[in-house]
Design the sequence.
């Protein structure tokens, strides 16, 4: 386990939307530098809500949330609009915009950062292709490049492998490993318990925090059932548990 | 050449020409963002929702822009109120408000002393543009285009991916609210010349045509502004030569331009 400094944390966090019941309650965790954390839970379990609270878009209804510097966020792929007239390079460039004053033009330095980010996700050759003309996996990689160009120390990825072809998925996983070894903290929302086992720690969410810890210690049948409820299928006498994947959108 | 310019030989013609060129360019570039944010229906609703305000302004003999602004505010409040009814939803709220606005507007206008005035309010009167109207339109157009340039990054980040925009340092809600405000301002400025029914054509159609013709954002904004100004000028010219109603001609030409662009170029990816 990495013993880096804590880059993001939550303490008794509850967050949600408007006057509705909180979408998540009782979330307490810390993400250290050089660590990858799986945020595991069913659809509607509160994974995206947690990320939106970490980004600062949602104020805590209770408890607190803290991030060392603004995090980079890669939302679910299908939320991006495909008909907006931008190229892969334009999308990556958006990651450099927060530091640009409105009257300044995008300069050579920003372009260089965006191109380097695209190279890193293997899209260097496709920089000039329209975002909507890229494959699903390539689009996801462009969104990851936008997060890389942001140069944040904390990265939040919401279902980065959903709807993504195998080569793109492999590339994204390789980049996530690199980010971890560079001393960044990476949080990956997923409903795939098998993938969660490969990361350093896992935070199980089902509208409340079910568990947080190393996968080997945390991911037993009881926790998985509490996380997924009736969606879970347990195989091989409880040794392996596989969450049923079904998208509701 | 002289014969071609003949329709614009009088000061009213020159003002009309300047008004459509300026408004066409502003509407065209604004339209690109309206389409990107899926706000075409809001544009339609705002322009129609202004009608009662316009009629009241016409009856009370106060500037139409004041009536349009009041009507737009009332329309927006009506939509917000109706949308709170959960079983109706925002679309239903917009539909109810727009229908009610047109109904109330028609009732007020037809019951008033000058029923023919309704036609002017619905379809505009380009040749009645006063120097003050033109000055207001130029100020609004310059202001809106300037604001769109200044806000290009928050707008683009929010239009592509509203979920990620806050993490990039932008507030998509604010970008969208600013866009709606710009839309309301343009409609208020354009409604006297182009009418509440047809102003929307100059916002949506040139932008839709530009989306077919280009694949880069900067180029799309420029082409939409150029197409907007061009259909305005050509439409006005053709209508004066043929002796038909200008704003209808402009609207038909704008939609025709989109149809041509759509026929000439396949739909962009996505």
Sequence:
């Amino acid at each position: 386990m990495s013993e880096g400094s804590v880059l993001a944390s939550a303490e008794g966090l509850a967050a949600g939307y408007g006057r509705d019941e909180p979408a998540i309650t009782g979330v307490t965790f810390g993400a250290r530098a050089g660590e990858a954390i799986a945020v595991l839970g069913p659809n509607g379990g509160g994974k995206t809500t947690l990320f939106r609270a970490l980004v600062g878009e949602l104020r805590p209804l209770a408890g607190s949330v803290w991030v060392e510097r603004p995090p980079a966020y890669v939302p679910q792929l299908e939320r991006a609009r495909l008909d907006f007239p931008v190229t892969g390079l334009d999308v990556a460039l958006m990651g450099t915009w927060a530091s640009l004053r409105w009257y300044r033009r995008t300069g050579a330095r920003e372009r260089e950062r965006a191109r380097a980010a695209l190279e890193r996700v293997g899209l260097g050759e496709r920089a000039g292709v329209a975002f909507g003309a890229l494959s699903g996996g390539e689009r996801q990689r462009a969104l990851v490049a936008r997060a890389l160009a942001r140069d944040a120390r904390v990265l939040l990825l919401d279902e980065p492998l959903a709807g993504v072809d195998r080569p793109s998925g492999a590339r994204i996983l390789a980049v996530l490993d690199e980010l971890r070894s560079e001393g960044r903290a990476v949080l990956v929302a997923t409903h795939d318990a098998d993938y969660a086992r490969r990361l350093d720690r896992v935070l199980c969410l089902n509208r409340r925090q079910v568990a947080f810890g190393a996968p080997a210690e945390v991911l037993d049948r009881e926790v998985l059932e509490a996380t997924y409820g009736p969606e879970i299928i347990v195989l091989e006498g409880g040794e392996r548990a596989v969450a049923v994947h079904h998208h509701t959108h | 050449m002289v014969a071609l310019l003949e329709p614009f030989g009088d000061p009213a013609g020159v003002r009309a020409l300047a008004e459509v060129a300026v408004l066409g360019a502003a509407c065209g570039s604004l339209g690109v963002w309206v389409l990107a944010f899926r706000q075409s229906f809001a544009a339609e609703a705002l322009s129609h929702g202004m009608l009662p305000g316009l009629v009241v302004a016409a009856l009370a003999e106060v500037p139409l822009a004041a009536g349009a602004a009041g009507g737009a505010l009332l329309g927006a409040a009506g939509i917000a109120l109706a949308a709170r009814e959960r079983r109706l939803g925002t679309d239903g709220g917009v539909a109810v408000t727009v229908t009610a606005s047109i109904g109330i507007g028609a009732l007020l206008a037809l019951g008033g002393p000058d029923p023919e005035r309704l036609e002017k309010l619905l379809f505009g009167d380009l040749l009645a543009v006063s120097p003050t109207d033109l000055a207001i339109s130029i100020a609004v157009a310059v202001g809106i285009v300037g604001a769109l340039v200044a806000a290009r990054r928050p707008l683009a980040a929010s239009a592509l991916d509203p979920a990620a925009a806050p993490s990039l340092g932008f507030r998509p809600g604010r970008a969208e609210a600013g866009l709606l405000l710009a839309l309301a301002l343009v409609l208020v400025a354009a409604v006297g010349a182009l009418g509440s029914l047809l102003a929307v054509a100059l916002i949506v159609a040139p932008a839709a045509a530009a989306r077919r013709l280009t694949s880069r954002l900067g180029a799309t904004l420029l082409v939409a502004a150029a197409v907007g100004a061009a259909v305005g000028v050509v439409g006005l010219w053709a209508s004066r030569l043929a002796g038909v109603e200008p704003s209808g001609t402009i609207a038909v030409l704008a939609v025709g331009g989109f149809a041509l662009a759509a026929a000439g170029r396949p739909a962009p990816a996505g």
